[in-house]
Amino acid sequence: MRWRVRAGAPADAPARAPSRGLRSILRAGELALFLAPFAGFWLLFRLGPVLYGVAISLYRWDPLGDVEFVGASNYLRLAADPRFWNALRNTLIFAALAIPGILALGLGLALLVFAYRHRPAVRWIEAAFFFPYLLTVSVVGLVWRWLLDPDFGAVLLALRSLGFRPPVFLNEPAWALPAIAFATAWWLAGYRMVIFRAALEDIPEEIFDAAKVDGATGWRLVRSVLLPLLKPAALFALVLTGISGFIVFGQVLIMTAGGPGRASEVLALYLYRFGFEYLEMGQAAAVGVVIFTLILLLTLLSFRWLGYGGAG
Amino acid sequence: MNVRAVARVGLVVATLLAVLWLAPVLWMFATAVKPTPHIFALPPVWIPSVVVGDHLSAVLIKWPFTRWVWNSVVVATCATVLSTVVSVPAAFAFSRLQWRGRDAVFLVFLSSMLIPLEVNVIPLYFLMNRLHLLNTYPGVFLPIVGMPVGVFLLRQFFLNIPQELDDAARVDGAGSWRILLSVILPLSGPALAALAIYMFVFSWNEFFWSMIALSSPRMFTLPIGLRALQGAYDIDYGVLMAGASLATVPAVLVFLLLQRHIIRGVTLTAFR
Amino acid sequence: MEYAVSRREFLRMAVGVALSASAGLGRPAWAQKRPVLLDFYTLFHSGDAAAMEMIVRKFNAEHRDVQINLLQGQWAEYYAQLFAAVGAGNAPHIGICHTSRVMDVYRALTPLEESRAGNLLDLARIRASDYTRSVWDAGVYQGKRYLVPLDSHMWGLWYNKDLFRQAGLDPERPPETREEFERACEAIRSRTGRMAFHPCEDALPRKIRRAWEILLWGQGGELLTPDGRRAAFNDERGLRALDYLVTLSRRGWHQPGTDGFKLFAAGQVGMLLAGNWYLPTAKGSGVNFGFHYVPKFFDRPVTWGDSHNLVIPRQRPERTSNEVLVEAIRTVKWINENSHLWGIHGGHIPAYLPAQRSRELLESDSWRLALRKFSEMANRGWVRYPVIHPKAPQIHAAIEPAVQEAYNLRVSPREALARAEAEVNRVLAS
């Protein structure tokens, strides 16, 4: 059995050519063999659950008890729940702080590392910036919670000893989300740095030379030459980082558990609490559907606004 | 101003920034070995003068900590291996085989990258409950295997391998599987390594779904175990930082050993 | 079948002989009875956890056929994980349930008198007359018993005797009335410069709510209407209670958001409202502390309290045989019989009367330092349980953020209560 090969290759003419129909069936069969293992997992554990989730969200569903079809009522309850809207708002605020934070820090660090690419020491500097990415989310949350502890946190004590009067970050409604976003940026910026730096290295030296001839140095070089060239990398990074912003959970749970008040209760935390603390599985499934829809919309919009970034 | 001097100052600033960047991690290690009165001292004791192992031994003795490490290793390894095994042929079909509707089907798979695991936790909980896979290793890693990242990444890489190699192999009578195994895969080391690193780090860090799927403490992975530590010692930062430090040691070791590979691997997962 | 020994049996015997030969002197490997392993997961942490660990260690040392596998912690997600585990069919054999949670947690629990292994209470000789009456009576829901009481616990007033002395107060006469309390606060503030008072342990939202509830109940206020259908706290009593919580900070006696546990142990706080579980920490801190009743802030003395109960989460027969179920309830009884240790080391009042009246407990340091006064508060009927309602977690979740924001001086008490009331009513209506 052979695959059609591209033009220029010798035509394949097997001695006993099976009939055309049989051949295409065999080909389809082989293709299925290539695709089936992955497609199976994908259908069962990725696409399937999305549809299943929509179905669950139409029921009132107690995992230890009864099931009752309730139509859109779970969605209506969400719409009527200020706690839901608060969680949505917090999620958007977090995303608006963390995503640009991660990308800007990542880009800044990448430029820094790139500028000294010829120095041997830069390898260690880069390693230091990258390292937090390898920490697990619980470690990140615990460490920053400890650093920002209202009574004995090193950050607050250090700021105080320098004569500042810092807010008690994790216990101030206005500061809790920014603090979590900052910790998240510290955690993930190194990953973006490596990717941006790779993109920078792909830029041919001639472009730098030409820019130098034009007198573009420092910030002007960055803004007028490098950033436009980085745009495709940045766009896709934006989308993927953006998604991770919409499902933030671990850091929030560990650093503030949604507090103070509900100042940092995000959608994933809302989902967890309704699903597993109040056992409102249907309503929690509805939250999942809402998050998914939001991600879909925002992705389409960002491709629309920023232009398709060559994702495939 | 002297350009060289500026550069030197810049390098010093970069070095200081790098040290500051690691300060939280150093503070974590320091707290883990400080006696409790030094941890809660005002003014703070910045550098421990006495080193104690109480917190570390509390974590290791009172908690199935080594078991958590083991669970994490099992979950991450299974997710990585299985996802590579199923992604390779699929990526091959999407890059080296010609068939009608190929790019459309690929786009469907690709767009499912937009579905994070987290939005699916409720249906996955019901599904795994029916399959009797809650609180098991497969219950945690199977949903990760369904992620399309591997297919996407490998397809990108396969597309860059010259088609002439396939053609030559076909002329020699090789079938598709042989081409995959003996032509494409030997050339794909870097991509496979990148995928493996990505999947391993992802599974090692997975939190939300694991927290729901795993209900018995002996099955916890490290992130979930650390959260349990927090629940148990919410005011005892010595023990918490000891747990966090112990969880970080493997990352430090692996990173020191494989730094170049990891960073190069990450570069390849850039989805550019 | 004609042959006396089937092929399979023969093989098994052959393997058995080989194994026992290789095992040498000992009994053949398969003949050694492996002990029944009971999973016991609790939500205890810090001092509590250490005390329960001690009890379990004693159990494991005294038993060969049954061993407890103890895991503790995770206050916040304990019930969520219990539900998940019951749903997944791998719930621990023994767990803990607060009395105040029986109305929503019961779904995950084995009804003890009508389990598939029979009446477990009878099988383990667990009798009502052995337990503090009120706590025993509260362990029933819809006519079925789910809970076996372990303890009563409550908040009281911990105070720093050295700071009292520095402030010119009599360290042996802690405040009992509001006037005495306020005088003490002012003296500590002005003469020592330390935080005079911390009303709510570590200032977690649920702790702030408890402090407010103490002030509310002290005036005869209630969280819900008697029928449990509407919020009842947004009246002048609820407002006065929240106002008072805010006043503490406004007068400079308290700094909101700080961790009273840590600060008291560091000698930085004059008086702390905290539960009896603080006893091990207080003892270990080196602070020269005293303990007393919660002061009478308003019309009547009252404190917040609850009970821990031992429970058997629902088990699937394929995982847990009837025999294991019976072992579990016997273990529950054993823990009760040794719960004087829970009092001595955990600082709780055992609900099991023989333990409560045991010499070991009555002659212990813990009794002298704090438990005597805790049990006096209990005997005088000052202890109030949190609201018992099927939607209790959601009701509390509706109240806590608003109360916390008022406590943090972010919104006015009036606004906070209005918000909390609206949300509680919405929760109750849906």
Topology:
The complex is a heterotrimer of chains A (312), B (272) and C (430).
Chain A lengths: L19 H37 L2 E3 L5 E3 L3 H7 L2 H34 L6 H9 L6 H11 L6 H8 L11 H30 L2 H9 L4 H29 L3 H6 L11 H11 L3 H26 L6
Chain B lengths: L2 H30 L3 H4 L14 H9 L2 H31 L6 H10 L9 H10 L6 H9 L3 H11 L3 H9 L4 H12 L1 H17 L2 H6 L8 H11 L4 H32 L4
Helix pairs in contact in B: 1-14, 3-14, 4-7, 4-8, 4-11, 8-11, 9-10, 11-14, 13-14
Chain C lengths: L6 H17 L12 E6 L4 H17 L3 E6 L6 H11 L6 E4 L3 H4 L14 H4 L9 H5 L2 E2 L2 E2 L2 E2 L1 E10 H6 L11 H15 L2 E4 L6 H13 L18 H15 L9 H6 L3 E7 L3 H7 L3 E4 L10 E4 L1 E4 L10 H16 L1 H8 L2 E2 L2 H4 L2 H4 L2 H15 L3 E2 L7 H16 L5 H17 L1
Parallel strand pairs in C: 1-2, 8-9, 11-14
Antiparallel strand pairs in C: 3-12, 4-5, 6-12, 7-9, 7-10, 7-11, 7-13
Helix pairs in contact in C: 2-14, 9-10, 9-18, 18-19
Distance between the termini of chain A: 30 Å
The first-level CATH class of the largest domain in chain A is given as: Mainly Alpha
Radius of gyration of chain C: 25 Å
Given helix and strand content, the structural type of chain C is alpha+beta
Write the CATH homologous superfamily of the largest domain in chain A: MetI-like
Q: Which bin fits the share of residues in helices of chain A?
A: 55-70%
Annotation keywords:
heterotrimer, B: 272 residues, mainly alpha, MetI-like fold, 14 helices, 0% strand, C: 430 residues, alpha+beta, D-Maltodextrin-Binding Protein, domain 2, seven-stranded mixed sheet, globular, disordered N terminus
